[in-house]
Amino acid sequence: MGEGTVVGEAAGLYVHVPFCSAVCPYCDFAVARGSGADRERFVGALVEEIDLIGEGERHRGGEAWGFGTSRFDTVYFGGGTPSALSLGQLGAIRRRLAAAFAIDAEAEWTIEVNPEDASPESLAGWRELGFDRISLGLQALDDSALRFLGRRHDAAEARASVELAREAGFRSVSVDLIYSLPGFDADWWLRTLDEAAALGPDHVSCYELTIHDGTPFGRRRDAGRLRETAEDERAASFVATHRRLAELGYEGYEVSNFARREADRSRHNRKYWRHQPYLGLGPSSHSFAGRSRWWNVAPWREWSDAVERGGSPVAGREELTDGQLLLEAVMMGLRQRSGVDCAELERRFGSDPSVGNGGRIEVWEKAGWLRVAGRRLTPTLEGMARADRLAAEWELR
Ligand code: SF4
Ligand 1: which residues within 6 Å by Cβ? Predict the structure, then answer.
């Protein structure tokens, strides 16, 4: 691996399952409903992709993947809806992963699950397959919001799924929630947070609703039938979310992520935020190693066609310069409670990212967006709310 990757770190493995039982009106991921035959075909192609990379035969344009000798300490099944696959299909994928890659016995195994798929039997099955962390897509805890979001579960199923996951013995239970829903006010959102915390998850992820062009919500917005929440309202919701969850015992360690204890933080997501290596499998998945990033084609049929032909499903790749990696590291640091460690970045990249930004840092400190302690820059809540804008203004010398 090149210098961009944090040396000596174990890698993460991501498996993308592109199927959902119905497509939510706000979703802009490459997802499909998929018939039973489609799912079988997908699993067959995934197994082939795993074998080819595991054997080190697959190359990206003649260059080795660089993962042949890696040790993996996180495995994450995301989507789409991984729980849309049967236990038999998930088991086949899991067995192939274990045969092809050196996965630590203590690795974190996460599965994303929709509440309507969580039954005592399915949860016991996922535990038996080795998943120890579950991410439940609750999104909301009342029926009118769930209907608005076009979800297939109701509030009772959402609540029950957390309890059942706990009873099934998952080490860490995480729940996903969505805020800034048009027509749902600040009190409604704070109530949602209180009710979610009362269910006792170890980890909470809160995402702002984004209305994307080309989705049913995007078309409704364009026709004037859906009002996007104003930017200042969204910023206020962001700050209120962090404050309320902190009161409820969940530390916001990243813009969208909250944990009760350090051990409940997502080890896998940290790899994305810290330039640690990760290998993505399945359509639309991204990989990173050294200073290279590459990604698979998104439509699952195109991806399957390529794999079945024995060709490469890679749609594109980029080689990042030190400057690009350093800027990304600053951006990701501004999105995390731990902030930007200029000394560490100077060791990795040979230049201090604060050089040339002294004026900006001073202004942001005075505005209450940043705290400076030695060579560490830590965003305040107000700073995290503006993290992307601050990063866009950053300049490297
Ligand atoms: S369940 Fe998630 S991935 Fe599937 S359509 Fe809905 S938002 Fe998209």
Answer: 20, 23-24, 27, 29, 31, 79-81, 114
CATH architecture of the domain 322-393 equals: Orthogonal Bundle (1.10)
Distance 62 CA to ligand 1 centre (A): 35
Q: Which of 16, 26, 27 to mutate to test the pocket of ligand 1 (most atoms within 8 A of CB)?
A: 27
For residue 291, how many other CB atoms are within 10 A of its CB?
18
Q: What is d(CA 176, CA 396) in angstroms, rounded to the nearest whole number?
A: 36
Mutate to test the pocket of ligand 1, among 21, 23, 33 (most ligand atoms within 8 A of CB): 23
Fold adopted by 11-273: TIM Barrel (3.20.20)
- Full-model pTM: 0.94
Q: Residue ranges of the domains in the chain? A: 11-273, 322-393
* pLDDT mean for each 10 residues of the chain (397 residues): 54 96 92 95 96 65 54 95 96 95 95 97 98 98 97 97 98 97 94 98 97 95 91 89 98 97 95 93 94 95 95 93 93 96 93 91 95 95 92 85
Print burial letters for 104-140: b (CB count within 10 Å at least 16), e (below 16). eeebbbbbbbbbbbbeeebbebbbebbbbbbbbbbbb
For residue 297, CA distances in Å to 19, 119, 346 come to 15, 33, 35
Amino acid at 74: T
Whether the link from the prior residue into 80 is cis, omega within 30° of 0, is yes
